Amino acid sequence: MPATYATSVPVSTQAVTLVSRTVVSTATLTVTISSIPSTYRQLRVHWMARSDNATIYAMFMRINGDTGANYHGVIQTQNVATITPAGMSGSAYARVGVIGGTTTPTASGQFGTGVIDFHSWNTANPTLGRLGFTSVSQYHENGSNAYLEQGGFFYNAAPPYTSLSFYTANAAVSSQAGSEFSVYGLS
Fold this sequence. Notes:
The chain has 187 residues and is mostly beta strands. The chain has strands at 16-23, 31-33, 42-49, 57-63, 71-79, 82-91, 94-99, 112-118, 131-142, 145-155, 164-168, 180-186.
């Protein structure tokens, strides 16, 4: 018997479709995935990235290129044994993960990875009128730089939502070649 959602819709009836896959070929300041159809009930992003700098940076995301104060949520970052919670209210982006740099001595070839789930793509929560999403990411460099980050957010702008943009916390630092962003839609 297939697993079911609370609404008793069998999971096996939901089709998962690869909407877009972007692999960075040369260092890029912003990776944008556009023309995302509004026909999906849910959206999932899998990403793997590293920066072209020696520093560990946060990975940020914007919806529809919106730089307004429309992103709200909470994040919890754990670096080895230190846990740091933070709230975001009226931010110009959502923080969706942590990535390492290409020149960090022990990090050569290491990428941060993450998953972002949009729970009602293009059908903002009818009660709140907001798009809800969660993120989980990890980056492990060595015994003193091992990160796990998770967050819950809402985007306070009306649909349609058609694009996602990813960039580092330092606007001058690029996503390095080999970074990858895949978007999956669930009907």
